[in-house]
Specification:
By secondary structure, the chain is an alpha+beta fold. The chain folds into 3 domains: 85 residues, RNA polymerase II/Efflux pump adaptor protein, barrel-sandwich hybrid domain (OB fold (Dihydrolipoamide Acetyltransferase, E2P), Beta Barrel); 63 residues, E3-binding domain (Dihydrolipoamide Transferase), CATH 4.10.320; 220 residues, Chloramphenicol Acetyltransferase (2-Layer Sandwich). It contains 12 helices and 21 strands. Strand 15 and strand 16 form a beta hairpin. The longest helix has 18 residues. The chain is globular, with a radius of gyration of 25 Å. The N and C termini lie far apart (64 Å).
Length: 411
């Protein structure tokens, strides 16, 4: 039976997708749920898997083609059974080489013999390995649980003496002004969309930013006191992000305009708290959404943040993971940023920027003491959020974090 492989249903905000790379060719045997092709959208990299065991009988669109939701990409013939001795074999019978001409198997063949491991790679890693015909077993992984990252592959390529520049993106090396070389690399769909949304946010909103600073000592003391017990019970470390998400939820309850959005001439006040947490990836910044964050425990929040961050860096976020959101947080402090003005993520009306924690001299009770301080910045849409509400919101977040017992008492 011939089974069509179609583009998954895309969200309303995503009109089409680009075929990034086929991992199978016509005539290849495929297993159900095995990745056939990577689709790049404005938001995420999607994997389209085989719907059934069989043979890839036809490919309708080649790499680089733009396709729409529900469009047929390929056809799988499920009537052809996979040979038991060679699940990953080809339709053509294998030719046994003569002993005197026997040569080591190429790296690409080695990779085909390990489909299970390849399935754990991100699309970017698989693409590099395929393009440079690398042996995945020879690459040392530095990612979580020994996972191979894009940086690991690039390092391996450089050590092997291959040109790493070709692994980044198709480009053209030209001679620029003054006879100096320069490289022209086309924007990815995600980078193009990020640029469009940032420009849209600045042009379509009355964006303003207010600042404050938070003494992180109370939260740091609480983490130090309970970290071991927390990790033992929940299997995950207690970080800072969950405290900030929880503090923002409490502040949003008091100042609903910060959790609202504009729809035409209406202001929509959301009765739920779906928090976006910005994650930096090799392809660009993405903002997965933690749903109903106000109803989650600190442990559940930390688990959600870690899972989303892992999925984002591996290119496995779904459309649902990125859709919606009523408020966002971004942590530039992980990269050493001391202060910045975050840009809104429309249609949201506010975003909180976290920054680097630094020991600074503070005056307490008339004495100068050293305290771990963090600057925080909240950008907001002045069309629906007044300065008083914005400042009061940020002060509430500061008060809750400087006295974490408020989270338990909800005061």
């Amino acid at each position: 039976m011939l089974i069509e492989v179609k583009v998954p249903v895309l969200s309303e905000s995503v009109a089409d997708a680009t075929l990034a790379q086929w991992h199978k060719k016509v005539g290849d045997f495929v297993k159900r749920d095995e990745n056939l092709v990577d689709l790049e959208t404005d938001k995420v990299m999607l994997e389209v898997v085989a719907p059934h065991d069989g043979v890839l009988a036809e490919i309708k669109h080649e790499s680089g083609a733009v396709v729409g939701s529900g469009e047929v990409l390929a056809v799988v013939d499920s009537s052809v059974e996979l040979p038991a001795e060679e699940p990953e074999g080809k339709l053509e019978p294998e030719v046994v080489a003569e002993p005197e001409k026997e040569e080591p198997a190429p790296a690409a063949a080695v990779a085909e013999e390990q489909p299970a491991a390849a399935m754990n790679f991100s699309p970017a890693v698989r693409k590099l390995i395929a393009e440079h015909k690398l042996d995945a077993t020879a690459i040392s992984g530095t990612g979580r649980d020994g996972r191979i990252t894009k940086a690991d592959v690039l390092k391996h390529i450089q050590q092997a003496g291959q040109p790493a520049a070709a692994a980044v993106a198709p480009s053209t090396t030209e001679v620029g002004a003054g006879g100096r070389p320069e490289q022209r690399v086309p924007m990815t769909r995600l980078r193009t969309r990020i640029a469009e949304r940032l420009l849209e946010a600045q042009q379509s909103t009355a964006m303003l930013t207010t600042f404050n600073e938070i003494n992180m000592q109370p939260v740091m003391d609480l983490r130090a006191k309970y970290q071991e017990k927390f990790q033992k019970k929940h299997g995950i470390k207690l970080g800072f992000m969950s405290f900030f998400i929880k503090a923002c939820c409490e502040a949003l309850k008091e100042y609903p305009a910060v959790n609202a959005s504009i729809d035409g001439n209406d202001i929509v006040y959301h009765g739920f708290f779906d928090m976006g947490v910005a994650v930096s990836t090799e392809r660009g910044l993405v903002v997965p959404i933690i749903r109903d964050a106000d109803q989650m425990s600190l442990a559940e929040m930390e688990q959600a943040v870690v899972e989303y961050a892992g999925k984002a860096r591996e290119g496995k976020l779904s459309m649902e993971d990125l859709s919606g959101g009523t408020f966002s947080l971004t942590n530039g402090g992980t990269f050493g940023s001391l202060l910045s003005t975050p840009i809104l993520n429309p249609p949201q009306s506010a975003i909180l920027g976290m920054h680097k924690i630094e020991q600074r001299a503070m005056v307490e009770n008339g004495e100068i003491v050293a305290r771990p301080m963090m600057y925080v910045a909240m950008s907001y849409d002045h069309r629906i959020i007044d300065g008083k509400e914005a400042v009061s919101f940020l002060v509430k977040v500061k008060e809750v974090l400087e006295d974490p017992a408020r989270l338990l008492l909800q005061v």
